[in-house]
Write the structure tokens for this entry.
Amino acid sequence: MSLGRFSRLSMMTGRNVQAAVNMTTGVLKYSTLQGSSSKLAGKVAIVTASTDGIGFAIARRLLKDGASVVVSSRKQQNVDDAVMKLQTEGLKAVSGIVCHVGKKDDRTKLFDEAVNKFGGLDILISNAAANPAVGAVLDCDEDAWDKIFDINVKSAFLLSKEALPLLRKRGGGSIVYVASIAGLQPFPVLGAYSVSKTALLGLTKAAAQSLATENIRVNCLAPGIIKTRFAQAITDPDASRDIALQSIPMQRFGVPDEMGGVVAFLCSEDAAYITGETIVASGGMQSRL
Ligand SMILES: NC(=O)c1ccc[n+]([C@@H]2O[C@H](COP(=O)([O-])OP(=O)(O)OC[C@H]3O[C@@H](n4cnc5c(N)ncnc54)[C@H](O)[C@@H]3O)[C@@H](O)[C@H]2O)c1
């Protein structure tokens, strides 16, 4: 039967299921969206900076696994485009709102969106990051240092704090910080950024300890070099690409979907006994602290 004879209906019984009806026979045929499961069915997630790159891939994977997801970033147009793109893929349980993670009002609206659209919150993914300074850590000027720590660390801390009442209401939940392999082994040219990511490893452990008895798990993803706009300066020019590839045993850069899979695992029941951990996904790049 050719697909052309079917009209596609999305969202029949769940977010992971595509339904197609044969217009001649009226017979309904269901198929599961590629790479999807229902491991996160009934869960509500917020992903910051999720209209592009790793954040978008995380949002898409959580949706495919059955969660309802609020996507966000600083520009309304990017939010609208991301929501449209996901809905076009049949992932209808998505909502979007502008959120600059450094602005309290925006964070409040982000949480309100999850509550108003989907009834609560189970999963917080803190993914936003800024890096206005390139160079050795002690060459970083104060303004750049403050911006890096405001966005990469303080916002992750505040988002977690503000999410707690909602997670507690649901009897538990999952928080995942997106750090970097540079947080374990500083990149010389990303000095201050690397230190900010090291702080997230500490926040993961400290928050996980204090929330462990409340069924709220806190974990961290440390990506290696992943092909996104953020990493273009490394992955695009021939010279830097070749040098970077030499440091990766798998001899290739990661792709955002590979990060989405790790985060979805950390948020799922498969990771029910995992908290306070950082998972490095780097193609084997050396990582130590
Ligand atoms: N791409 C890589 O190689 C790589 C490696 C390790 C870690 N990471 C981390 O992964 C995460 C996602 O990065 P990416 O590679 O997808 O690049 P990206 O540029 O798509 O993601 C970073 C996002 O953060 C957003 N952002 C910056 N300031 C913000 C603010 N105040 N409020 C809301 N959003 C803000 C940016 O607009 C951008 O969309 C980041 O935390 C980054 O540090 C990326």
